[in-house]
TrEMBL record:
It is an enzyme of class 3 (hydrolase). It is found in: Cytoplasm. Its cofactor is Zn(2+). The lineage of its organism: Bacteria, Pseudomonadati, Bacteroidota, Chitinophagia, Chitinophagales. Zn(2+) binds at residues 108, 112, 118. Its EC number is 3.1.-.-. Keywords: Cytoplasm, Endonuclease, Hydrolase, Metal-binding, Nuclease, Ribosome biogenesis, rRNA processing, Zinc. This is Endoribonuclease YbeY. One of its GO terms (biological process) is rRNA processing. Binds 1 zinc ion. Its main location: cytoplasm.
Length: 141
């Protein structure tokens, strides 16, 4: 199992990557999802907008785009793209620390790969609940 973090045209703002990798591995185990590989790419709004247009035909800014790259639904091989610009703006908008919002989005992408959706109100409420659960576990609340 390999978890990677790459900063593309943005400053690397992650601290304690070893702890985060172990936590993400544990998240997948707790959710009953196998994990072969996971690659997070932290990027700009402009870069993620191009990915959103090219692969999802969405011409909108977003904080995250998640791709399952593998063929086995039981074992994740994922790529997750996160806009640091969106995370920064959302942290300000919601009045939370940048680091908190960054980890919320990191866990959000992992939860998508574990099968959680957020299209309906019910799905979105469960997703938010799971994000909070993992944020509290990660930050020791």
């Amino acid at each position: 199992m390999a978890i990677q973090f790459t900063a593309h045209e943005v400053k690397d703002q992650l601290k304690d990557k070893r702890k985060l990798k172990q936590f993400l591995s544990d998240l997948f185990t707790a959710e009953g999802q196998g994990l072969k590989s996971l690659h997070y790419v932290f990027c700009t709004d402009a870069y993620l907008l191009e990915i959103n247009k090219q692969f999802l035909q969405h011409d909108t800014y977003t904080d995250i785009v998640t791709f399952e790259m593998g063929e086995d639904p039981e074992v994740t091989e994922g790529e997750i793209y996160l806009s640091v610009d969106r995370v920064t703006e959302n942290a300000e908008k919601f009045g939370v620390p940048f680091n908190h919002e960054l980890h919320r989005v990191i866990f959000h992408g992992a939860l998508h790969l574990c099968g959680f959706k957020d299209k309906s109100k019910k799905e979105a409420a469960l997703m938010r609940s799971k994000e909070e659960e993992y944020l509290n576990k990660y930050f020791g609340k």
